[in-house]
């Protein structure tokens, strides 16, 4: 069940288009320029006692730099946990804005910078706090569960924050307690949670512009071309794609599945930024981007997030050297958003302990 009015959706789509016109990958550096840029970043990281935290969807050069300098590469849950636990004075978050905000809320004493403050997310844009608060007010009996891809203000209105790596477990937990869920903003992930757990879920109507472009018909053709390849999909993809997949999970879970499964080829329905890590983890396996709207489609169909692509070595250097692009979150909003975020981290920790205990 989806509840966002269609006029709201039309306006969200216009906003997304406006953002997309501004977003995009910066021009590539030559190898020599990239090396110079990296060594400058390295000394700036040391000088500022800063660590780089990068998402799997960012450029491979940023992911390598994060790992080489004692920082971290991961999904949004792991990024949040690392930022909170590390003892750096400054974090520089290569990803999109909600990741920087989450880092700042969890680590208020740390300075949190981003290579660009323009890197946002279609899910965040499509869930403005005013409309979301009305939606919550209209359903006061439901437990409010929001995806991490939301603004700090939306998180502050929630009972739970989840990432794709623990969405199923949280929904199961709430359902076992007889609770009904109000879910926002990703309708595909919410619907997947509903189908998989049987929980009573009321959905907000928004989607990731990257994952929504994966097409089941093209996937059927591709499977015929690569009959031995397993299909790995992120649950932000449409239902028809998920139903054809051999494995559905978060980015970290997709990487683990690619190592664990015996196949030597994989068709992958998530942002192609993840291919850097997939190939690093399994150098002898073949990874193929799942089909989207086709070669001549717009940048929405390139299996790469235009906002993640705004993170570059150059923007990272600029941000660190000045320093600029610091994330600030209103203190009351941060206080309220801290509760569901802490709940998520504690729940994830307990889950890890339970899984380890069962092993
Ligand atoms: S890939 Fe999709 S969900 Fe992730 S940041 Fe980009 S628009 Fe948002």
Describe this structure in words.
Helix content is 48%, strand content 13%. Helix 2 packs parallel to helix 15, helix 5 packs across helix 16 and helix 9 (167-176) packs across helix 10. It has a 4-stranded parallel β-sheet with strand order 2-1-3-4, sandwiched between helices. Strands 6-5-7-8 form a 4-stranded parallel β-sheet. The model has no long low-confidence stretch (mean pLDDT 91). The chain is an alpha/beta fold and 359 residues long. Bound molecules: iron/sulfur cluster. Iron/sulfur cluster (SF4) is lined by residues 57, 96, 121-123, 149, 208-210, 236, 271, 305, 307-308.
Summarize the structure.
The protein is of the alpha/beta class and 359 residues long. The protein is built from 16 helices and twelve strands.
Mean pLDDT, to the nearest integer, reads 91
Portion in beta strands = 5-15%
Give, in order, the helices and strands: HHEHEHEHEHHEHEHEHEHEHEHEHEHH
Give the terminus-to-terminus CA distance: 37 Å
Biggest sheet character = 4 strands, parallel
Q: Tell me, briefly, the overall form.
A: globular
Strand order of the largest sheet: 2-1-3-4
How does the helix and strand content classify structurally? alpha/beta
The number of distinct helices, counting runs of at least 4 residues, comes to: 16
**Helical proportion?**
40-55%
What is the number of E strands? Answer: 12
Residue runs with pLDDT of under 50 for 5 or more positions:
none
Q: What's the Cα radius of gyration?
A: 20 Å
> What ligand species are in this complex?
iron/sulfur cluster
